[in-house]
Amino acid sequence: MPELPEIETLVREMQNISLIGLKIVKVCVYWLRTIAELTSEEFENKLTHKIIESISRRGKWIIFTFANAPFSLLIHLRMTGKFLLDSNNLEPTSHERIRIYLNDGRILHFIDQRKFAKWHLINTDKILNSLGIEPLSKEFSLKTFKQLLKGKRQIKPFLLDQHNLAGIGNIYADEALWMARIHPLRTVNSLTDKEIEELHYAILTVLKKGIKNAGTSLGSTRANYSNIKGQRGGNQNQLNVFRLTGSPCPRCQTSIKKIVVGQRGTHFCPNCQNENLSYSM
DNA sequence: AGTCTTGTTCGACT
DNA sequence: CAGTCGAACAAGAC
Question: What pLDDT is attached to residue A100?
Answer without folding.
Answer: 94
